[in-house]
Amino acid sequence: MRLYAFGPRFFGLRLGVSFNLSRLFQRRRQMPSAITINGQPFVYVIKDETGRCKIGSSGNPLRRLTELQTASASPLSLAYVGVPESDDGGKIERGAHAIAGHYRASGEWFVCPAEAAIAAVHVAAANAGEKLCQFTPAMIDETVQRTGKPESMIGRFIVVLAVLLVIYFAARY
For the chain, where are the alpha helices, taking DSSP H only? Predict the structure, then answer.
């Protein structure tokens, strides 16, 4: 169904706007529950040049990497990013922290090779009965963009109403 709104004629042309109402109020396609921004689905390992690794979980590991980079003197890079079948990457993160506990430097940072931290993540996932799917940075960007918070119907309605009011008042004057 389409909604047409027309204004007055200018130089023999009638200006107007056409809205596809069925598409305007259609909700965005939802992604599987394992890839949502609300939870902490991504489990990641970040490494630096000094041999330290951080095991963590985040809704956007690339953004988390840039946040950590601002506070780090040495360059950081993503060594591993995985997505569990469930929406709870935090459970795998806590398990990996327990497994790699003897390497702990402070907080979530560990002094160990990146391969040892990645192995701890995989063992924690297996202990939790989860399967991990490895993601590349390009896949993370695409996933985060596709699962961004959908626009609300109220926001769309306000935009449509504003456009109609502009057309109405333009026609009156």
Answer: 21-24, 61-70, 89-99, 114-127, 137-146, 153-172
